[in-house]
Amino acid sequence: MPFDVDQVSQRLGGRTVLWLTETDSTMNDAARLAALGAASGTVVGAERQTAGQGRHGRSWYSEAGLGLYFSVILRIALPADELPVATLALGLAAAECITQLTGLAVDLRWPNDVLVGERKVCGILIQQQQENLICGLGLNVNHTAFPEELASIATSLRLETGREFAFEPLFIDLILSIDRHLEILTTQGKEAILRLFTQASSYVVGRRVVIDQGETALRGTTAGLDENGFLILQGDDGKRTVVLAGGVRPA
Ligand code: BTN
User: Fold this and answer.
1) Those residues with Cβ within 8 angstroms of residue 213's Cβ, 6 or more apart along the chain or in another chain
2) How far apart are CA 98 and CA 113, in angstroms?
3) Is the CB of 112 under 6 A from ligand 1?
4) Is the entire prediction scored with pTM above 0.85?
5) What is the sign, positive or negative, of the torsion defined by CA atoms of 230, 58, 179, 41?
6) 90: region left, alpha or beta (phi > 0 left; psi from -120 to 50 alpha)
7) CA of 125 to the centre of ligand 1 (A)
8) What are the structural domains of the chain?
9) How far is the CA of 36 from the centre of ligand 1 (A)?
10) What is the DSSP string of 2-62?
11) 9-18, 117-126, 208-217: lowest mean pLDDT where?
12) Where in the chain does DSSP place strands (E)?
C-alpha cells in the first residue's frame, strides 16, 4: 500500500509532507527544498533510498517499503551552543515514540542512536544548512532480516515484537514527538533535555566504552554530559576528555 500522504498531512495540521517512491537521500531533497525557502516543519520521505546517508560518512540501509526514511526541515532560533542538544532531543523523541507504540524498552547511545538491546533500530542524522537544520531519521520497521554485515548490529520493530506495523501512525507519532521535544528545548532550555537524555540512556554514566574517532580510539568509562551535551569520558589514565564526535560502542 502506498504511504497515505494526504492522511498524514491532515493529521499533522496541514503540514507539507512529500513522499517519493525513490530518491538518493531524503537529506539531499530536504536540503534543496530548504534552500528554496520551504517552510519549517516540511518533511520529505521516501519508500526507498539508493544512497541513504548515515553518520560519519556511513550509508543507511534503506530497503524499499520496509523502513521509514525521512528528513524534516527545521528553522528554529537556537543559540549555537544548544544545537548539539537538538540532536539529543531528536533521539529522545524517537525513543519515546517507539516505546509508546510498541511497548519495547529502548536505549539511547550517545549522541542519538536508538537501540533495542544492543542493536540499532533507528538512526538520526542532523546537518546544518545556514539557519536550517535538516533532520534525517531512519527507522527499521518491518524488516525480517538484514544483510550479513548488519545482522549483528541492526534490528527492526518487527524482529523485536513479531508484529507488522503500518507506517502512517508511526510517522505521525514520530513527528508529534519531535515537535514536543523541541518545544521542551525551546521553553525549558537545554538542561531539561540533558536531564531526560541522561535518564533515558545507559551510555551516559558509568559505561565502559570504546569511542572510534577515525584512525584513533578512546577507551574509558562514561562520566556524564557537559553543559552542551557532549559526552565526558574518564580515560583509563584518569584523564577526562570531552568527546565532540565519534562512534561509541561497548568496551
Ligand atoms: C545514523 O545512525 O548513522 C544516521 C542514519 C540516518 C538515516 C536517515 S534515513 C532518512 C535520512 N536520509 C538519509 O540519507 N539519512 C537519513
Assistant:
1) 245, 246, 247
2) 13
3) no
4) yes
5) positive
6) alpha
7) 5
8) 5-199 (3.30.930.10), 204-250 (2.30.30.100)
9) 22
10) ---HHHHHHHTTT--EEEES-BS-HHHHHHHHHHTTPPTT-EEEES-BSS-B-GGG-B---
11) 208-217
12) 17-20, 43-46, 67-74, 107-109, 113-116, 119-129, 132-140, 205-213, 216-225, 231-235, 240-243, 247-250
- Ligand 1, atom nearest to 26 Cα: 12
pLDDT of residue 222: 96
Residue labelled with grid coordinates 518545544: 183
Phi, psi (degrees; rounded to nearest 5) at 240: -95, 135
34, pLDDT greater than 80: yes
Q: How far is the CA of 123 from the centre of ligand 1 (A)?
A: 6
Tell me the β-bridge partners of 19. Answer: 45
Question: For residues 217 and 11, what is the distance between their CA atoms, to the nearest angstrom?
Answer: 45
- Amino acid of residue 193: I
* Ligand 1 atom at shortest distance from the alpha carbon of 62: 9
> Whose CA is closest to 85, among 234, 207, 192?
192
Own/partner pairs, 233-242, CB within 8 angstroms, 24+ separation: 233/209
